[in-house]
Amino acid sequence: MKGYVKIFTYGCQMNDLDSRKMYSLLARDGWEATESLKKADLIILNTCSVRQKAYEKALSNIGRLRPYKRRKPSLIIAVTGCIAQQKGRDIISRMPHVDIVLGTHQLHRLCEAVDEKREENRQVVDIRFNECIPSLDIVPEKAFMTPAHRAYINIMQGCNNYCSYCIVPYVRGREISRGHAGILEEVRGHAARGVKEIFLLGQNVNSYSGGISFPELLRRIDRVEGIERIRFTTSHPKDMSDELIACFGDLEKLCNHVHLPFQSGSDQVLALMNRQYTRRTYLGLIEKLRKARPDMAFSADVIVGFPGETGDAYRQTLSLIQEVRFDTLYSFRYSVRPGTGAAAIEDDVHPEEKSRRLSELQGIQRAITLEINRSRVGTTPLVLVDGVSLRNPGQVHGRTTQNAIVNFAGSPSLISSVVMVRVTRANPNSLTGEMEAPAAGKKVLSV
Ligand code: SAH
Ligand code: SF4
Ligand code: F3S
Fold it and tell me: What is the rounded distance in angstroms from the CA atom of residue 240 to the CA atom of residue 401?
C-alpha cells in the first residue's frame, strides 16, 4: 500500500469523471481512498475556473491545506483541473505547499508525478496540451462509479466555440474526440457487467468527430444489448443537427430530455457572446425537438448581466424562459474571466442589478418548474432507481427518462431496477410517488 488519498472535486461532470479516473489510477497503483484529511498522504484538488466564485473557492481551499502539510511534511498536495491548466507554476509560486500541478491533458501522468515527488522530492508542473488526450481512454474502476448502473463516458474534450464570456476553450483546449471503437468497446463492457444507463460527456458532445458522427455513435450505442437509457451533455445549439434531432424520435433508448444552453434571449447579447445563433433559431430547435418527441423535457444554462445587457435585453431572456418552459434552468450572474473576449468589454451591469435580475429570473423559473411538476401528478413514469434517500431511509430515489427526480417508499433492493411509479405529489425540485409494479420484462423484486 502506497498511502491514502483524498480528492476534492469542483466544477462540472467532466471534472467529476476525471476525479473517478484519478482514484482508479491511484487504486491500481497501490493507493487507498480516504475521507479523512488527517490520514491522507496525498490530497488532490480537482479545480474549476468557469466563474470567479468557483475560482476563489478552490484557491482558498488550497490555502487551507497549509497546516496539514506543516503537521505532516510528507503529505503531497496536487492541483489538477481547469485552474491548474490556467495558472500552472503560478500556483506553486503563490502557494509553495503545493507539490504537483497537472493540466487537463496530463491526468494520465498522475501516478508518475506522485512517484517523482515522493522519490526525488521534485515539484512537478505539467500543463502541456497534447494532440490527443490519453486520459479519455481510462475506464474508471467499478468501485468509483456510483451508482453502479450508470456509466459516464467522456467522448470528447475541449471547445472551439470561444463564447466571449467563457474560459473553457483556454483551459480544456481545442476539441479532441475519442475514437468510436474505444467508446463502443467501453459501452459493451459496461453492458456486460450490468450497467443500464450510458451518459456521454464532453464540453460539446454534439460536435463529436471520432471517426463517425455523433448521431451515428448514438445509433450504435442504442443497439448494444443490456443498455436501457442513453443521455448526453452538453450540446451547443449550433450543432443540434436535423439528424441528431431525428435520433430523439427514432432511438428507443435515447432519453426524452436534452440540456441545451441558450445563455440569453436577446439577439444583441447573443451576438456579443459569440453564440452563433439567434433567438429565433434557438426557438426553432426547441420546436423541432418537440415535434420529434412531443414529451421532450428541456434544461438549459443562462447568464444574466452580461456586458451590454440592457433592461430590454434581459426581458427578452425572461420571455424566452416563459415561452420554452424549461423543466430545469441553471442560471448564473456574469463574472469576468481573464483572457476571454468579453474581458475587453466594460462589465457595465451593476452588481446589485445583476443580483436583482438573477433572483427575479429564478423566481419565475421556480414557478414554471413547480407547474410542470404539478402537471405530472397522476402520471406513471418508469423510474431507474439510483439510491436510498438521505433524509428518509425508508424511501428510494431515481430518475424518469425526462430526468425528473422521484422519491418513493421502497427497499434498497430496488436500486438499479426500473420500476413504474405513480406520481402523487409535486415538490419544488422533485416528485413524490408510489411504486405501481416492476416494469414489464425487468427483474421482479419484492418490497
Ligand atoms: N460546455 C458547456 C458548459 C460551459 S460552462 C456549454 O457550452 O454549455 C457552464 C455554464 O457556465 C455555461 O453554460 C454558462 O451559462 C456559464 N458560464 C460560463 N462562463 C461564465 C461566466 N464568465 N460568467 C457567468 N457564467 C458563465
Ligand atoms: Fe464555453 Fe461556449 Fe464552449 Fe460552452 S460552447 S464551453 S460556453 S466556449
Ligand atoms: Fe469548470 Fe473546467 Fe468544467 S472550468 S465547468 S471544470 S470544464
Answer: 20
